[in-house]
Amino acid sequence: MNFAKTGRQGEDLAKGFFTGLGYRFIECNYRNKSGEIDLIFMDGEVLVLVEVKTRTRWSAVEPELLIDKRKANRILKCAEIYITNTELHFNEVRIDALFVEIKRGGPVFKHIKSFY
Fold first, then answer.
1. For 77, which DSSP code?
2. Alpha helices in the chain (DSSP H)
3. How much of the chain, in percent, has pLDDT values that exceed 70?
4. What top-level class would CATH report for the domain 3-112?
5. What one-character DSSP code corresponds to residue 81?
6. Nearest to 17 by CA among 43, 35, 36
């Protein structure tokens, strides 16, 4: 499976994961000059911006280490632009990470709220 296909599959699984938690889906793959936000949801009055990382198997490295400081800064800059330009009304903003491992028996998720 190629990386792009794996990534799309992970984002589709992530969308189902968050809607299953009751989050309202807003948008996927939002892009601006600073970068990309994989998924955007509303969790009640909270705007949730999600970075999704997908693998078919994890190495010995903890998944959290896959989002380095440079990537985190790009997400934050992209989020600032999104927040400035959105017409959504929210009381709080949260940036989450969702790590998806695609296994034969079904996906395994690791959700970290307020990752940044």
1. H
2. 3-20, 69-85
3. 91
4. alpha beta
5. H
6. 43
